């Protein structure tokens, strides 16, 4: 069983698989060293990055995230403002301090990018080797499998399902709909019952409120930031100017003015993500702008989102993410951008359809429509950074989500393509996708647009 709060996680940008996952893995490795008594003997740690992590890790701040994780920081709580000082200190001292352990570990560029090698279980592999002087004393390999989820080699082979329990267990959309009908539940009610098995009710409330708050703060921050985005592209942010322009013409009669606002919300969050700011992974960081944009659209243009509606939206959207995670993938390195922005758009379409009064069947149809029109979408970030095409793509896919919800609600005959069919199609399309288009920056826009020819 996957928790709703594993799908929606408060973290930092720019990437769930290349920033959040590696940071969590590094922290887990340090904790492992501490538990098995090896930390005190550790003089230095070598880090090997494989596959997509090696190829686009620099642009995704994987190296910085790993150092933060090794020093004991986590994506949810790290103080973003202190990161530059933290990195400067490592550079000056040639070592980092492990939080709460009062121990310094030597760090002298021991991060190896093995761009021509991949580990067998997933494209995003990272191996940590702790040394006592020249002798390796502890090794662990982690895979960052998308959306900030990590697995060790051992966990990959475990049957995780056996260890989990949920009152309404589902593995595909067909069963989910059957359970809703049998128990007279909406999708969000069913998800809530499942979540309460692992999270106390007061914690559910607190987490839902925090998620919505962080989403709103990311929009606010993105609308007022001034510095260009980090990295070699040196892109100017678009959200601040757009915000100013839209604020000045608030009284316009343009019936499509809400479209500009949806674009603004998505761009503002995505730019915050690209800048390494605080966002909500949903279900990945590259796609973090879509759900806040669609929720804010509802909040601003339909009716204010109270707690109950926020919870409904997020619970329903999580059910859709789980179906994709269980039966396909939410990793751009595995299935291209259809697994990130495509899944997020399907989640947002489902959440919005729910709030607009759709039945469980209609909600799955909204998600299906949104994904059907992201099938085949490649991942080809220019310069290996989550900026082009990612930021604009979030805006485009937020709009697709709104359209998909409306199309599903306005349909007068049963859908021909089921959500399960589109998930299977997405998985197969991802498998067939050339590695150039799976977060390696070796094809597509990444090779047509180079930082030098900007
Ligand atoms: S192109 Fe899509 S999958 Fe690739 S980094 Fe950008 S948002 Fe993520």
How would you summarize this macromolecular structure in one to three sentences?
The protein has helices spanning 4-7, 16-35, 51-56, 62-70, 83-93, 153-157, 160-163, 173-183, 187-196, 201-224, 239-248, 257-274, 290-301, 307-327, 332-335, 341-355, 360-372, 390-409, 419-432, 445-448, and strands at residues 9-12, 44-50, 95-98, 103-106, 111-114, 124-132, 135-146, 149-152, 278-281.
Placed side by side, the strands forming the largest sheet appear as 5-2-6-7-8
Which ions, cofactors or small ligands are bound in this entry?
A: iron/sulfur cluster
| Rg (CA only) | 22 Å
Structural class: alpha+beta
State the end-to-end CA separation. Answer: 45 Å
Shape: globular
Low-confidence stretches: none
Proportion of beta-strand residues: 5-15%
Number of helices: 20
**How many domains is the backbone divided into?**
2
Mean pLDDT figure: 94
Would you count the extended β strands for me? Answer: 9
Helix fraction by DSSP (H/I, runs of at least 4): 40-55%
* Major pleated sheet: 5 strands, mixed
**Order of secondary-structure elements:** HEHEHHHEEEEEEHHHHHHHEHHHHHHHH
Task: Write up this protein.
The structure is a single chain. The model has no long low-confidence stretch (mean pLDDT 94). The protein has 454 residues and is α+β, with helices and mostly antiparallel strands. Helices cover 52% and strands 11% of the residues. The protein has a five-stranded mixed sheet with strand order 5-2-6-7-8. A two-stranded antiparallel ribbon has the order 1-9. The chain folds into two domains: 148 residues, 60s Ribosomal Protein L30, Chain: A (2-Layer Sandwich), CATH 3.30.1330.90; 283 residues, no CATH class. The chain contains 20 helices and nine strands. Strand 3 and strand 4 form a beta hairpin. Bound molecules: iron/sulfur cluster.
């Amino acid at each position: 069983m996957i928790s709703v709060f594993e799908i929606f996680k408060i973290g930092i940008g720019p990437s769930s698989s290349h920033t959040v996952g590696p940071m969590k893995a590094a922290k887990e490795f340090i904790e492992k060293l501490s538990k098995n008594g090896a930390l005190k003997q550790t003089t230095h740690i070598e880090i090997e990055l494989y596959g997509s992590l090696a190829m686009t890790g620099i642009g995704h701040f994987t190296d910085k995230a790993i150092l933060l994780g090794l020093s004991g920081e986590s994506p949810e709580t790290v103080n973003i403002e202190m990161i530059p000082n933290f990195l400067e200190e490592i550079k000056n001292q040639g070592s980092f301090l492990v939080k709460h352990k009062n121990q310094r570990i030597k760090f002298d560029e021991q991060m190896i990018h093995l761009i021509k090698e991949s580990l067998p279980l997933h494209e995003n592999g990272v191996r940590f080797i702790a040394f006592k002087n020249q002798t390796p004393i502890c090794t662990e390999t982690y895979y960052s499998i998308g959306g900030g989820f990590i697995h060790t080699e051992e966990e990959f082979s475990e049957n995780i399902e056996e260890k989990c329990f949920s009152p309404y267990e589902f593995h595909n959309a067909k069963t989910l709909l059957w359970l809703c009908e049998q128990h007279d539940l909406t999708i969000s009610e069913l998800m809530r019952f499942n979540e309460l098995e692992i999270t106390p009710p007061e914690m559910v409330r607190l987490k839902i409120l925090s998620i919505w708050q962080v989403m709103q703060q990311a929009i606010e921050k993105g609308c007022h930031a001034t510095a260009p985005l980090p990295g070699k592209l040196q892109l100017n942010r678009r959200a601040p100017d757009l915000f100013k322009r839209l604020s000045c013409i608030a009284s316009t009669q343009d019936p499509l003015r809400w479209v500009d606002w949806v674009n603004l919300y998505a761009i503002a969050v995505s730019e915050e993500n690209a800048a390494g700011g605080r966002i909500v992974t949903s279900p990945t960081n590259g796609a973090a702008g879509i759900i806040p944009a669609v929720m804010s659209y509802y909040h601003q243009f339909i009716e204010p989102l109270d707690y109950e509606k926020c919870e409904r939206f997020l619970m329903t959207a999580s059910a859709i993410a789980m179906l994709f995670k269980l039966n396909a993938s939410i990793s751009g390195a595995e299935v291209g951008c259809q697994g990130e922005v495509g899944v997020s758009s399907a989640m947002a379409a489902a959440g919005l359809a729910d709030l607009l009064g759709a039945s469980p069947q209609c909600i799955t149809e909204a998600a299906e429509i949104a994904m059907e029109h992201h099938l085949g979408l490649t991942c080809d970030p220019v310069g290996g950074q989550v900026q082009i095409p990612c930021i604009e793509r979030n805006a485009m896919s937020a709009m697709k989500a709104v359209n998909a919800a409306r199309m599903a609600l306005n349909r007068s005959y049963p859908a021909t393509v089921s959500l399960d069919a589109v998930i299977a199609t997405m998985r197969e399309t991802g498998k067939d996708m050339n590695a150039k288009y799976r977060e390696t920056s070796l094809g597509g826009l990444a090779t047509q647009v180079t930082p030098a020819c900007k």
